[in-house]
Amino acid sequence: MDYHAKTIILHTDSAVPDPAAIAQAAQVIRNGGLVAFPTETVYGLGADALNAAALDRIYAAKRRPASDPLIAHIAQAEQLAQLAAEVPYAAQRLAAAFWPGPLTLVLKRAPHVPANIATGMDTIAVRMPIHPVARALIEAAGTPIAAPSANTFTRPSATTAAHVLEDLYGRVDVIIDGGPAPLGVESTVIDLTGVHPVVLRPGGLVMEDLLRVLPDITAQQRFLAEGEATSSPGQLTKHYSPRARLMLYDGDADAVRAAISDTAQRYLANGRRVGVLAVEEDAQHYTRLGARIIALGARGDSPAIARVLFGAMRALDAQGVDIILAPLLGGDGLGEAIRDRLLRAAEGRVYTLGKHDA
Ligand code: TXA
Ligand code: MG
């Protein structure tokens, strides 16, 4: 066990949670404290979902505006009925098909659940994670655990305990270090309070799988202008940003490579520090530039890219780069979530280059 100012770090195996660590962390949750813990998507910053004062502590620790609602994490299906006023048929089907897993359902909130979990809205987002450490913690705490991603507001989500420490040192009581989060991107959020199910945030559960269970599901238009009304307040574009300015390039692979090389050279010539996020196939083209290069994974290997994406942005920030250049990646499956996180991190700065199909 390592001690920091006010933050205790407990280490555990990811597959077989250490009972003593879980018991200690669960006690902190029951006492209204904050515990950061690994899930299969990213690390969460947890508190008792039924304790309004504890929920306020989450917003304060994250430096998050209280306009951004939290997800309640459960360990058993019965806990859903405790949190939601009603569980529509579509929710039952999705839960049966994909829980435990990286899927969050937005439902009407039960009246006894503190309103500040959903910033006063009459809804609640619920997810049953599959990560053994998350499950053990929720069970031991004996209460649903509200948890946003364990980063400060606007920073990339934390996928390791070290990232959590970087952002929340001294502002969280306990961090359970259970190794890197296996998926690396957050859960898929689905709104089930309307007539048709709507994907509010693409994530770890991919659209292809969702469509098999709910053929009428649609994706919400994501990149709203600042100030436009939205049913998922957390989705305005200023989010997930590295400190450096991220610029994305979209188009044919060679055009993108050439544009990134040219731009990097221009900034480097002006004395700026440049970082490049590259697919493995491209990384070698950049080695002579003098920029910091991070290879994310092979082109099209979305699971590999998703795992390292947030960590790569943090690593470039840690190296003090002024600017980050990256291709706009995407595609099917997890590619959708990757594309979404890149666009948000870049706050919409995308340069489109000679596309054959454009
Ligand atoms: O994978 C995940 O979902 C991670 C781990 C820790 O479970 N959590 C996470 O939480 O990403 P957070 O707070 O960073 O993102 C929650 C998302 C936001 O986009 C938020 O707007 C949406 O869920 N959300 C939460 N409650 C909602 C509600 N009542 N109505 C609509 N959207 C909601
Ligand atoms: Mg987040």
Explain how this protein is built.
The chain is of the alpha/beta class. The chain folds into 2 domains: 8-219, DHBP synthase (Alpha-Beta Complex); 245-353, 3-Layer(aba) Sandwich (Rossmann fold), CATH 3.40.50. It is built from 11 helices and 17 strands. Strands 1-2-9-3-4-8-5-7-6-10-11-12 form a 12-stranded mixed beta sheet, sandwiched between helices. The protein has a 5-stranded parallel beta sheet with strand order 15-14-16-13-17, with helices on both faces. Strand 10 (188-191) and strand 11 form a beta hairpin. Helix 1 (19-30) crosses helix 5 (132-141). The longest helix has 17 residues, at 253-269. The chain is globular. 48% of the residues are buried. Bound molecules: threonylcarbamoyladenylate (TXA) and magnesium ion (MG). Magnesium ion binds at residues 148-149, 157.
